[in-house]
Amino acid sequence: MARAAVCVLLVAAAGLPALGSPPYPALVKHVLTEAAVTAGARCLDGSVPALYYSGWTAAAQRGTWLVFIQGGGWCYDAMDCLGRSAGEYGSSRAWGDSLTVDGVMDRNCTNNPSFCGANHVFLRYCDGASFAGFREAPLEVNGTALYFRGRAILHGALDMLLDRTLPFGMHRAERVLLSGCSAGGLATYLHADALRRTVAAAAPALRDFRAAPISGFFLNHANLRGDAVYTAEMQNVYRLHNVSGGVDRGCLAAHPGAEGWRCLFAPYVYPHVSTPTFVINSAMDQWQGEAILGGVLPAHFPHQHDASHGVPYGIPEWTPCLQEPYFNCSARGAQMWNRYRDAFMTALGPPRRPGHGAFIHSCHLHCAARHAEYHTVTVAGATTQQALTRWWEAPADAPAAAHLYTPCRYLEGDVPDRRCNPSCPDIPPY
Q1: Distance between CA 109 and CA 14 in Å, rounded?
Q2: H-helix or E-strand spanning residue 150
Q3: Is residue 210 a contact partner of residue 278, using CB atoms and an 8 Å limit?
Q4: What mean pLDDT comes out for the span 342-349?
Q5: Given CA atoms 251, 252, 253, 257 in this order, what sign does their dihedral have?
Q6: Cβ count within 10 A of residue 331
Q7: CB atoms closer than 10 angstroms to residue 183
Q8: Cβ(58)–Cβ(24) under 8 Å?
Q9: Taking the C-alpha atoms of 241, 247, 253 and 256 in order, what is their torsion angle to the nearest 10 degrees?
Q10: How deeply is 242 buried, as exposed, middle or buried, from its count of CB atoms within 10 A (0-12, 13-18, 19+)?
Q11: CA–CA separation, 367 vs 287, rounded Å?
Q12: Angle at which helices 150-162 and 183-202 cross, to 10°
């Protein structure tokens, strides 16, 4: 294969729009290099992965990099992965040449002053295991070869950005924020320390590398019938994708052998993450209600006969409350959600290490910091954007207690609206 052509977005102050003024530059597609493909980087269907890049637009942020890992769930067994391989989360074949991303990657400097002018990287997701798996040989499923190569995609993308012979320039990075939402948020926990070491080795001017995972703190929790559905699904992801080589070494030492699957869950990984981390999550997360509290296993799992992807909202008596807790939950339903909130906060624990922090809200949202709610959901008088900016602009060893925002509890009395946080929107955007 010929070396993939790499386009470069050249920017010069004279040619830029005024800060905070449109048009904003789009993220431009860059196919991973031949070296990355040789090392194994392939989407589930065997197509070549890509990242999307937009260079700095403000001289003051030319040394700042925001690397965002796309989410999109996981594929839990072979037939699920076969189905996924035919779509955009398992194949790059239909990916466009450019895209724009809102929220933390907003280029509007009025809305997002700390990151609007930075180098932006959006790493698209097509492996189905949070960039953690690697199987040397493809797996044939119903006559189709599937490639489980997430780890090779991640490292191939980073190597391309750091390559001094290519025009991206990450080897000159001074500050890096690694982020991502949902499965990309989980990937942020899983890979922050390893990626920090890789960037530090290649970028001599690097002085600050931090992480801000969004909606990636998924609980190892039973559904509302007491069945460990999500646990079983992620255990099979760990086995099917051969994830053991792509998770935190410290976590694996704490959970050796047959317990290694726990290291595909943020609550078990996060205590071992040394990278300064700002956790952004809802304690009443919409997806966790849908797929953890309300999920059931499809027939014959983990050897499905079709390409079913889990069964969300599979407990009918709880579905209205799980879908819309503000107006559809009884007092008992509000109590259920508050117990989940408490389990979430117990699993997270109060961040104590210097440089860490957390913004945990009670809105029934998922990946809100990728959307307009980045600027509207508040806790203790601060929006997500304001809280993240304060943490980012504070010293890397600032006390964690100075950057801790905690969620309220749903109202359990005889009330028409169970929201405890008036900034939560009526209709979830997810």
Answers
A1: 18
A2: helix 150-162
A3: yes
A4: 97
A5: positive
A6: 14
A7: 25
A8: no
A9: -20
A10: middle
A11: 9
A12: 40
- The answer, yes or no, to whether residue 3 has pLDDT greater than 60, is no
Alpha-carbon distance values, 308 to 250, 299, 300, 313, 343 (Å): 34, 9, 10, 14, 29
Global confidence as pTM: 0.93
Catalytic residues: 182, 285, 366
- Structure tokens given for 171: 């080897």
* Alpha carbons 321 and 410: distance in angstroms, whole number: 12
Alpha helices in 241-308 (DSSP H): 249-254, 266-269, 286-287
**Measured between alpha carbons, how far is 199 from 176 in angstroms, rounded to an integer?**
9
Residue range 265-275: mean pLDDT, rounded: 97
Looking at the chain, how many residues does it have? 430
Per-residue pLDDT tens for 202-246? 999 999 999 999 999 999 999 999 999 999 999 999 999 999 999
What are the residue ranges of helices labelled H in 203-261? 229-240, 249-254
Whose structure tokens read 């991640």?
Answer: 154
Distance from C-alpha of 362 to C-alpha of 24, rounded to nearest angstrom: 32
Place of tokens 């939950």: 329
pLDDT interval class at 328 (50, 70, 90): very high
C-beta separation of 25 from 54 below 8 A: yes
The CA R_g of the chain, rounded to the nearest whole Å, is: 21
Structure tokens at 419: 């929201």
Contact 147, 42 (CB under 8 A): yes
Residue 384 — φ and ψ, nearest 5°?
Answer: -55, -45
On the question of pLDDT at 16 being above 90, the answer is no
Do 269 and 200 form a contact (C-beta atoms < 8 A)? no
